[in-house]
Write a structure and sequence with these properties.
The structure holds 2 protein chains of 2 kinds.
Chain A (H helix, E strand, L loop, with lengths): L1 H8 L5 H24 L9 H24 L7 H9 L17 H17 L6 H21 L1 H10 L10 H24 L12 H13 L5 H4 L9 H19 L5 H25 E2 L4 H6 L6 H4 L3 H19 L4 H18 L4 H7 L3 E2 L3 H5 L7 H17 L1
Antiparallel strand pairs in A: 1-2
Chain B lengths: L1 E8 L7 E8 L4 E5 L6 H9 L6 E6 L2 E2 L4 H10 E4 L11 H11 L4 H14 L15 H14 L4 E5 L8 H16 L4 E5 L3 H4 L5 E6 L2 E6 L1 H8 L5 H9 L2 H14 L1
Parallel strand pairs in B: 3-8, 3-9, 6-7, 7-8
Antiparallel strand pairs in B: 1-2, 1-4, 4-5, 9-10
Classes of the chains: A mainly alpha, B alpha/beta.
Chain lengths: ~400, ~260
């Protein structure tokens, strides 16, 4: 029992943070003292603001605590911790040495205090700190899941919409968040079973880690930059489908009910920017092999291997125009037409060929040397430089 | 082996390369020579993979350049292309840059450390090795560029004017010795553009003369002499091939002055 208490005690934030938080919270009562004690104002609707302010502070505390509980204890968030764990005899059956990442009694104690304080201030908002804590906590667990538990992360993202839709009820939100916590925790436990990880975020092998960092340095040089090909923008058809589905689903959840002219206008703008963005990414990587004038004078109006980069924008624009017309023919309500069109447009933008990696490696054009970027390359600013700049700007202000 | 087959290239209307075909065997060092603006750098750029030909293709060890993802990755792992004005990351040190390039080519870590030390010593960059590249002089930047190509230990090297750009005499000597050593090896293929004939003859197995986007000749130095009937230095041979009228003009000028 004693051992367990010692372990769960690790989850508590440092004492000085708690003291600062308590002092700051108590300071808000000095306003009460001023208003009700010295100025003798009768409690009314306006003075309720003070209670709501305290609820806000409690919510922030709970949210920060949620962030703290994952960031400071999850090996995903600390490189040093991961390497140390890897070198230690720890395995998933043992407790994490820095403290637990699952919810423990100290969390219940901490949240109970915050909830009690919330009840004292505004009883209707008693649940606010709990929701703030769970949102922050689940969010951080979800971010950590993204690398090696991608499918669960997608499922959590989808299920998270039920905190808001369709009931919009805080009690339902809490239950959904607890369910999400359960799912995230189970998935985290599975990922800890497979520790040590070797993923693209971090490499276990120090040589691979060095090679990964070298790529970052090399990406600022020419022509070695072009040797590196990036897979970050690489999306499989399934992934493109799932991402489009989730975005459309969230539009459905947040905008429900909608589908007016303004939304259609936004959708058209979105199509335009998506098309422009993807085309620019591809064309800036590899410029056309010959100029427009060259094409005209040499009668090479179409260069199929290069011009396939235009397939996507043409298809997306056509789909953006044709899909709503077709859907209207089958008398689908406006909102569904809107959402399905959005889905089709997003899916085509992400899924249509050429793939980014294929384009980088085989596009028949000129690899673009970004001289303007080379000229304006600035060193990364250290904290010291930022502080020195701030000090000098303050000095200038005083002088003037 | 580098196989350039029927390559055409033009940016606008005027062709830069016209029907260029060359076959460079494995282990050969070939110098590409010719007047300025005649397509040497474009040819090397096409072989190096930073641009594609409008017509024709380039093969490296039997793999077609920019043809398929698999082939291109295989080519990139064994080929290094160094343009005449590479851009080096200004806020990294020379040593960091060399190590990063070596790691990019997956050179074994211990070997990489050794090789970088040797290269920095060879090109007299030991003192500046840990200073940011932006503080380097033009010649020092050129040296680091050359070192970065050499540290890759790639089996196919495409070097655009490695001797130009402010190299001092000791660096010129070091580079020509290194290239001579590479030329003597049977597993490394080097294709380089060099404007100065004097530097080429001792190291190049064969010389390709490019003018107006075409290959005027592709032979050994001796072969070029036989072809032009000129027994002088390589510069004269080159002029005979590219500008045969230059000798008449010189004679005419000198005769006129004597009179």
């Amino acid at each position: 029992m004693k051992k367990r208490w010692q372990y769960i005690k690790l989850a508590l934030p440092p004492a000085k943070w708690i003291v600062i938080a308590v002092i700051f919270y108590l300071l808000t009562y000095s306003l009460d003292l001023l208003i009700f004690g010295i100025l003798k104002v009768e409690p009314n609707e306006d003075t309720l603001v003070l209670s709501r302010l305290r609820i806000g502070i409690l919510g922030v505390y709970a949210g920060l605590y949620g962030l703290y509980r994952v960031i400071f204890y999850h090996p995903s968030y600390s490189r040093k911790y991961r390497f140390w764990l890897n070198l230690s005899p720890w395995d998933y059956r043992k407790r994490l040495p820095l403290g637990p990442i699952h919810l423990v009694e100290t969390d219940v104690l901490f949240l109970s205090i915050l909830t009690m304080l919330a009840y004292v201030n505004v009883p209707e908002l008693v649940i606010a700190p709990l929701i703030a804590f769970l949102c922050a906590y689940v969010l951080m667990l979800w971010i950590a899941l993204n690398e090696n538990q991608g499918h669960t992360a997608l499922a959590v993202l989808f299920l998270a919409s039920f905190t808001y839709y369709p009931f919009r009820n805080p009690i339902v939100s809490v239950f959904v968040l607890l369910g999400l916590y359960g799912l995230c925790y189970w998935s985290t436990a599975v990922s800890l079973e497979n520790f040590p990880w070797n993923t693209k975020w971090w490499q276990l092998d120090p040589v691979n880690e060095l090679r990964k960092q070298s790529k970052i340095l090399i990406s600022r040089s020419w022509p070695f930059r072009y040797i590196i090909y990036h897979n970050q923008l690489e999306l499989s058809v399934t992934k493109a489908f799932l991402i489009s589905f989730i975005i459309t689903w969230y539009v459905h959840v947040i905008k429900w009910p909608a589908g007016g002219l303004y939304e259609w206008w936004l959708l058209m703008k979105l199509v335009f920017y998506l098309v422009l963005f993807r085309t620019l990414v591809y064309v800036s990587m590899c410029l056309p092999p010959i100029s427009l004038l060259g094409r005209l004078f040499t009668f090479r109006l179409i260069i199929p291997r290069y011009d396939k980069v235009l397939i996507m924008p043409i298809c997306v624009i056509l789909a953006g125009i044709a899909t709503p017309q077709i859907l209207r023919l089958i008398n689908l309500p406006g909102i569904y037409c809107f959402e399905l069109t959005l889905f089709v447009v997003l899916f085509l933008t992400m899924a249509l060929p050429p793939k980014y990696k294929e384009w980088q490696l085989t596009a028949p054009g000129r690899l673009y040397r970004k001289r303007a970027i080379e000229k304006n390359l600035k060193p990364p600013r250290s904290t010291d430089t930022v502080i020195a700049d701030l000090v000098s700007s303050k000095k200038n202000i005083f002088k003037s | 082996m580098i196989n350039i087959v029927d390559v055409w290239h033009h940016y606008g209307v005027k062709p830069i390369l016209k029907n260029v075909s060359l076959k460079i065997e494995t282990g050969e060092l070939v110098a590409v020579m010719g007047p300025n603006g005649m397509g040497k750098s474009t040819l090397l750029g096409v072989v190096g993979g930073v641009m594609s030909s409008i017509k024709g293709y380039v093969e490296i060890d039997g793999l077609k350049r920019r043809n398929s993802v698999k082939e291109e990755i295989a080519i990139r792992k064994k080929t290094v292309y160094l343009p005449d004005d590479p851009f080096l990351p200004p806020f990294s040190t020379g040593r960091e840059f060399l190590l990063a390039v070596g790691r990019l080519y997956e050179v074994e870590e211990e070997r990489l450390m050794d090789h970088s030390e040797q290269l920095l010593k060879l090109f007299d960059l030991e003192e500046q090795a840990d200073s940011p590249v932006r503080s380097y002089s033009t010649g020092q930047k050129k040296k680091i560029g050359i070192c970065s190509a050499l540290i890759t230990e790639a089996s196919v090297m495409i070097l655009d004017e490695p001797f130009s750009g402010g190299l001092d005499s000791s660096a010129l000597l070091a580079l020509s010795r290194v290239l001579k050593n590479l030329a003597d090896r049977k597993d490394i293929t080097v294709m380089m553009a060099v404007p100065v004939p004097g530097l080429v003859e001792p190291i190049a197995h064969r010389i390709a003369i490019v003018a107006h986007g075409e290959i005027l000749a592709f032979d050994t130095a001796e072969g070029l002499r036989r072809r032009t009937g000129c027994s002088g230095d390589l510069g004269e041979v080159l002029e005979k091939l590219i500008h045969p009228e230059v000798f008449n003009n010189i004679d005419e000028y000198l005769e006129g002055r004597v009179k």
